[in-house]
Amino acid sequence: MAAIRARWITSVILLSVFCHTGLSSYWWFLGTSSVYQSTVDLKTYNFKEKCQQLNYLIQKQKDLCGISHNILAAVSKGAAMGIDECKYQFQTRRWNCTTFNETSVFGGVLNINSREKSYIYAISSGGVEHEITKACAKGDINECGCDDSVRSLPTKDKWEWGGCSQDIRYGEKFSKEFTDSKENSRARDGMMNLHNNEAGRRSIRSTMKIVCKCHGVSGSCSIKVCWRKMSDFRRIGSMLKQRFDGATLVDLNKRRTRLRPKTKGQKQPTKKDLVYLEESPDFCEYDPTIGSLGTRHRECNRTSYGIDGCRLMCCGRGYHTMVEQVTEDCDCKFFWCCEVRCRKCTQMVDKNYCN
Ligand SMILES: *[C@@H]1O[C@H](CO)[C@@H](O)[C@H](O)[C@H]1NC(C)=O
Ligand SMILES: *[C@@H]1O[C@H](CO)[C@@H](O)[C@H](O)[C@H]1NC(C)=O
Q1: How far apart are alpha carbons 183 and 61 in whole angstroms?
Q2: Where does a domain end: 294, 317, 332?
Q3: Using CA positions, which residue lies closest to atom 13 of ligand 2?
Q4: Is Lipoprotein one of the keywords (predicted)?
Q5: How far apart are CA 234 and CA 33, in angstroms?
Q6: pTM of the predicted model, to two decimals?
Q7: Are 313 and 292 in contact (CB under 8 A)?
Q8: Running DSSP on this structure, what letter comes out for residue 91?
Q9: Cα 117 to Cα 150: distance, rounded to the nearest angstrom
Q10: How far apart are CA 85 and CA 97, in angstroms?
Q11: Other C-beta atoms within 10 Å of 168: how many?
């Protein structure tokens, strides 16, 4: 009797956990390492079914996941790449793109329609486009491939089109359908999220480049073959970080049809710019409801006047200095051919931490 009862109670608890996560579920959960593992062993015969079981996706996303057996792995990688890039770009800021083991991944920071939220949306929508496009070029997805239409573009006989030009059109469309699907295009915050998702995708389009390879006798480059390629995701992350710094505070216009700069006279943001509706908290103190861990014990730079400097990072609470032992490579020498040998040097360095 007791055992049955215990089982009943566990299932009720499980059920309520399920329902709870269902409410605040986000596809970013796919980017966390434990979930990524599980996407790798999707099989051609069961992926459609498995996609329908991912309760942190909404119905439209489950259906998109079911298009092809390799889609989920690409979306997962895209989400993970977005999360990693966010952490890299924000490592010396008070909010350093903290993530949590819950389905919302970014936690309370999403409760405020701030610049931070705008970056999260843009980088992850870009991440999905980037990875889907790579999967297309590798031939992992039947619905897309390389862009052969470039071959008719003029090259002034200086070089020839060759190789696989990455085709961002499918990835762009997929990312739009997948990441935009949750948003209400008539709500204020929905409009903000849609705008920032689009900004993320535009950053990929605007940084497409042409790369070439030379052929010919002893590097004469008599034949030059070129193809189109996306920029590294690091470049996308840095570009969006600049847009974060220059993001525009917006609000609905009088007719409630679109977003306008809140400050009179400021120019209308372009589709590449990030927009936000609310100012950010200062992230100085611990407050999980806004996704802030506070800056206590964060390392800071004693000589910098920027946001990584102790004055700003520690929010005026001051800092303490500790002497720590650091071991690094030094006196590196190049030996023909091809080896670099270094010595290990240990030195004592001052490190500063916020009070
Ligand atoms: C989050 O989950 C990962 C992998 O499952 C685990 O290694 C890590 O310790 C967890 N972190 C927290 C704070 O629970
Ligand atoms: C981010 O900040 C938190 C606390 O503010 C700290 O515990 C964590 O180590 C930081 N992460 C990185 C990558 O610096």
Answers
A1: 12
A2: 294
A3: 91
A4: yes
A5: 20
A6: 0.86
A7: no
A8: T
A9: 36
A10: 9
A11: 23
Domain span holding position 224: 2-294
Contacting residues for 312 by C-beta, under 8 A, at least 6 apart = 94, 305, 306
Best mutation site among 85, 95, 99, 298 for ligand 2, i.e. most ligand atoms within 8 A of its Cβ? 298
In tens, the pLDDT along 266-275 reads 999 999 999 9
Structure-token pair, residue 311: 């004055």
pLDDT digits (tens, 9 = 90+) for 180-202: 999 999 999 999 999 999 999 99
Domain of residue 321, CATH code: 3.30.2460.20
Structural domain count of the chain: 2
Residue nearest (by alpha carbon) to ligand 2 atom 14: 91
Q: Ligand 2 site: residues with CB under 6 angstroms?
A: 87, 91, 96, 98, 293-295, 298
Q: Where do runs of H (alpha helix) occur along 164-309?
A: 168-180, 188-205, 233-245
Provide the residue count of the chain: 355
- Shared domain for 235 and 176, answered yes or no, is yes
